[in-house]
Write a structure and sequence with these properties.
Spore Coat Polysaccharide Biosynthesis Protein SpsA, Chain A; two-stranded antiparallel sheet; seven-stranded mixed β-sheet; mainly alpha
Length: about 725
C-alpha cells in the first residue's frame, strides 16, 4: 500500500508544482469551489496516471487519493485568501511530507529493527521531521506571498497631515568618514518640516576616522555629533545613549539609519502619517542597497537579501508580525521608552524590540517601497560574520522569549496572537535549517562509513520507485525557492541560481551560530580568516576552509561508494547535493575575489573587519557538550546502520488483479475494486540485509525505470533535506 501512496503523492506533487511554477503567480482570484474542483480533478488524474504507469492496485491507489484529498480540502478551507493553484500545491506538499514521515515512523517503530537500529532510526526521524517542518514553513511563506489574492489584515491608512517631530539616529563605529558624511548630507536633504539628526560614534579609537565627521557636523542646524569611548552595548548601547541624553524632547518618532545609507527625501513625508493611528508602534521599509550592478558576487548577495523583504515581510505583514529591521525604520518614542529602550544583551536588538512591541499589543506596518540604499558587506568574510551575528541573535531571542511564544502562554501582559507567536517562533527556528543540514551531513558520512566497511545500510529501505517521492520533495523545494525569488524580484534564472548558491554558502556559518547561540549566554562573534593578497583560488579555499573540508569528505565518499558499487544512485546524489551546499562557500569566496570596487567602496572594504568588533567566542562547557552530541549522532547512526536487524520492506506491492480497470473506471462502472492479488512473493530475510531486489513484478518494473544503478546490490539510506 505504501508504494501506491508514495507514487500517487509523487504524481500529484509533480502536476501541482508544474501548475504553480507556470500559472501560480498569474491566477488572481480566490474561490473555495474552484479550489475544491481543482484538488479533486488533479488528485483523481494523478491516481489514474500512477495506476497506469506502475500497474498499481486500485484499492491501494485510492488510499493515496484519500490522503491527498484530505490535505487538499483542509488547505482550501483554511487558506481562503489563496488562489486555487496555491491551495493545490500546498495540500500536495503536506500530503507528500506526511506520507514520507509515515514511512519513516513505521520503519522506526514498526518492528524488525535491532535495538541500536531503532535508536539510530529515531535520530534520523527527528532530523527528517525537522527538515520537513522547516520546508513546510518556507513553502507556506512562498505561497502566501505570491498566491495570496485577498488581504487578511486591514492596514491603517496614513494621514498626510500628521507630521510629528522626528529624531533620526545613526550609530557609527569605524565608518569611513566620507561615507558617513554622505549619509548625513542625504538626511539633511529630507523634505520634512521638523526633524533632527543625531550621530553617535561609539568606541572608534582612531581620531582621523571620527574627527572629520565631527568637523562637518559642527554648527550645522539640526545635526548633533557625539563621540564616546568605552561605551558598552555595541549598537544598542549607542542608541540608548542617543535616546536618553541626546534626543530632542519634542521628538515623537525615532528613525534608525545605518551609517552607509543614502535616503530618499520623501521618506518621512510618506511614512510618518501611519503614526496617526495610536496603535502603530513601528513602520519598516525595505533594506535596500546600491553599487552592486554588474558584479556577479554583489548581485548574488543583493538578490539573496532581497528575498526576505520581497517574500517574507509581505507575508508576515498580513498577520501583524513583521520585524523591525534595524535601518530605514521608524519607531514611536513613547512606546520605546515604555518598554525600557533597546536590549543591550541581544545582538539583534532591532528584531527583539519589535517582538516586545507586539507583545505589548501594538502594531507594526511594512511599507514595501525602498526609501534608502546602503552598502552590503563587500567581502565574503564580512558577509559570513554578519550572518553569524544575525543567527546568533535569533537564538538569543528564542532563549529570552520562548515562553511568550508558546500557544498556551496566557500571561495578561502577553498580547501576541497565535499567528504572531507562530511567525516569530518559526522565523527564528528557521535559522536551524542549516543545523539540520549539518545533522544530515553527519548521517551521510556515517552511512558512507557503513557502506564502505560492511556494505548494506538498512535504516531507510528506499529503493526502486520509492525514491521518487523524497527526490521530488527535495527538487520542488529548490525550484520553489528559485521561482519565488524570480517572481518577486523579476531577476533572470542565472541571477536566481547565484542567489541560491549565496544562501547555501552560509550554511556552515549559520550552523555554527546556532550551536553558539543555543549554548552561550553572552554575545559572540565569528572571526573570519584574513586572506591577504594571494592566489585567488587559494584565497577562496582558505576563506572557506571548513566548508571545503566538508565538501571533500562528502564528494570523496560519493566517489568511493560509487566506485565500489556500494550504494544506489539516489544515495550518491544525496552525497553530491550535500557536498554542493558546502562547495558553494569557496565558490562564493572565489567570486568575491573578482569584485572590482570604486575607490570609496575599496576604502570601506579595508575597514570591514575592524567594524565587526569581533571577539572570538571562547569554548564553553555547553559548546563542548554540543560538539560531543554531534559526534554521538554520527556514531549512533553509523553503529545502528551497520547492525539494523531485519527491517521489513514496506514497499512490497501485490500484483494488480486482471479485472482491475483503474480507480476511476471502477467508480464510473460501479465495479468495486478487486482485492489485490495474493500471489505476491514477500522478500526474504536476506533481502533486507544484502540485496534489495524483489521478485514482485511491480517493484521490479519500477526499479529498472528509475535508473540502472537502482538495481545494484546494497541497501540505501535516505536522509532527505528538502
Amino acid at each position: 500500500m505504501l508504494l501506491s501512496v508514495f507514487l500517487t503523492c509523487f504524481v500529484t506533487l509533480v502536476i501541482s508544482s508544474a501548475l504553480l511554477f507556470t500559472l501560480g503567480h498569474h491566477v488572481r482570484f480566490a474561490s473555495r469551489l474552484a479550489g475544491l474542483i481543482l484538488v479533486v480533478v488533479v488528485v483523481v488524474a494523478s491516481g489514474e496516471i500512477g495506476a497506469a504507469l506502475w500497474e498499481l492496485p486500485s484499492r491501494y491507489v485510492e488510499y493515496g487519493e484519500a490522503v491527498l484529498l484530505a490535505f487538499g480540502i483542509l488547505v482550501v478551507i483554511v487558506r481562503r485568501p489563496w488562489n486555487p493553484i496555491g491551495q493545490l500545491f500546498f495540500g500536495a506538499f503536506l500530503a507528500s511530507a506526511a506520507s514520507y514521515l509515515a514511512f519513516a515512523g513505521d520503519t522506526t517503530f514498526g518492528g524488525g529493527l535491532s535495538a541500536i537500529g531503532r535508536v539510530a532510526s529515531f535520530v534520523l526521524l527527528v532530523l527528517e521531521v525537522a527538515a520537513l517542518a522547516l520546508a513546510t514553513s518556507f513553502t507556506f511563506e512562498s505561497c502566501d506571498a505570491i498566491c495570496r489574492v485577498r488581504r487578511s489584515r486591514r492596514l491603517p491608512e496614513p494621514d498626510p497631515g500628521h507630521q510629528p517631530m522626528v529624531s533620526l539616529q545613526i550609530a557609527a563605529y569605524n565608518e569611513p568618514p566620507d561615507m558617513l558624511i554622505d549619509t548625513i548630507k542625504s538626511l539633511e536633504a529630507i523634505d520634512y518640516p521638523r526633524f533632527e539628526v543625531v550621530v553617535i560614534d561609539n568606541n572608534t579609537k582612531d581620531p582621523e576616522v571620527w574627527r572629520p565627521v565631527e568637523e562637518y557636523c559642527r554648527d550645522r542646524p539640526n545635526v548633533k555629533f557625539v563621540h564616546v569611548d568605552d561605551l558598552p552595548g555595541f549598537k544598542s548601547g549607542a542608541l540608548n545613549l542617543a535616546l536618553g541624553e541626546h534626543t530632542d524632547p519634542d521628538a515623537e518618532i525615532i528613525g534608525i539609519i545605518d551609517a552607509d545609507y543614502r535616503v530618499d527625501p520623501a521618506w518621512l513625508r510618506d511614512v510618518t502619517g501611519y503614526f496617526a493611528t495610536p496603535s502603530v508602534a513601528y513602520v519598516q521599509t525595505p533594506q535596500d542597497y546600491r553599487e552592486y550592478e554588474g558584479d556577479a558576487y554583489l548581485e548574488a548577495c543583493y538578490d539573496a537579501y532581497k528575498y526576505f523583504f520581497a517574500v517574507t515581510m509581505p507575508s508576515r505583514n498580513e498577520r501583524n508580525s513583521i520585524i523591525f529591521a534595524g535601518t530605514m525604520g521608524l519607531l514611536r518614542r513613547s512606546v520605546l521608552e515604555e518598554l525600557g529602550g533597546w536590549n543591550e544583551w541581544c545582538i539583534t536588538e532591532d528584531s527583539e524590540l519589535s517582538l516586545r512591541m507586539l507583545e505589548a499589543g501594538y502594531e507594526g506596518i511594512y511599507v514595501p517601497r525602498s526609501y534608502g540604499y546602503g552598502i552590503m558587506p563587500l567581502t565574503f568574510a564580512s558577509l559570513k560574520s554578519q550572518r553569524f551575528r544575525w543567527c546568533f541573535g535569533g537564538m538569543q531571542i528564542l532563549r529570552l522569549h520562548w515562553r511568550e511564544l508558546m500557544p498556551w502562554n496566557r500571561d495578561r501582559d502577553n498580547h501576541l496572537t497565535l499567528a504572531q507567536r507562530a511567525d516569530y517562533l518559526v522565523g527564528n527556528v528557521q535559522w536551524m535549517n542549516d543545523l539540520v543540514y549539518f545533522g544530515f551531513t553527519l548521517a551521510l558520512l556515517a552511512s558512507a562509513a557503513v557502506l564502505i566497511e560492511r556494505g548494506p545500510f538498512g535504516l531507510r529501505p528506499l529503493y526502486g520507485a520509492a525514491v521518487l517521492l523524497p527526490s521530488a520533495l527535495i527538487v520542488t523545494g529548490v525550484i520553489r525557492a528559485l521561482w519565488a525569488l524570480r517572481v518577486r524580484t523579476g531577476i533572470g534564472l542565472r541571477r536566481a541560481l547565484l542567489a541560491f548558491l549565496n544562501w547555501l554558502s552560509l550554511s556552515w556559518t549559520v550552523a555554527l551560530a546556532c550551536l553558539q547561540g543555543l549554548t552561550r549566554s553572552e554575545g559572540a562573534f565569528l572571526r573570519t580568516p584574513k586572506v591577504g593578497e594571494r592566489n585567488r583560488v587559494l584565497a577562496a579555499l582558505w576563506s572557506a576552509r571548513a566548508e571545503t573540508l566538508w565538501t571533500l569528505a562528502l564528494w570523496g565518499a560519493a566517489v568511493i561508494v560509487l566506485a565500489y558499487d556500494k550504494a544506489r544512485s539516489f544515495v550518491v546524489l544525496l552525497f553530491v547535493w550535500q557536498g554542493l551546499v558546502y562547495a558553494s562557500a569557496p565558490f562564493m569566496s572565489w567570486l568575491n575575489q573578482h569584485s572590482e570596487l570604486s575607490a570609496q567602496l575599496e576604502r570601506r572594504r579595508r575597514t570591514e573587519l575592524q567594524r565587526e568588533r569581533a571577539t572570538v567566542a571562547k569554548l564553553s562547557v555547553a559548546t563542548l557538550v554540543a560538539a560531543g552530541a554531534a559526534v554521538a549522532v554520527a556514531v549512533v547512526i553509523g553503529f545502528g546502520g551497520s547492525q539494523p536487524g531485519k527491517p521489513a520492506n514496506p514497499f512490497v506491492t501485490p500484483e494488480r488483479a486482471a479485472s482491475d480497470q483503474g480507480p476511476l473506471n471502477n467508480v464510473v462502472q460501479g465495479t468495486p475494486a478487486e482485492p489485490p492479488s495474493t500471489s505476491t512473493t514477500e522478500p526474504s530475510s536476506t533481502s533486507t540485509t544484502t540485496s534489495r531486489s524483489t521478485t514482485n513484478t511491480t517493484v521490479r518494473r519500477t526499479t529498472t525505470s528509475v535508473s540502472s544503478s537502482s538495481t545494484s546490490s546494497g541497501s540505501s539510506s535516505s536522509t532527505t533535506s528538502p
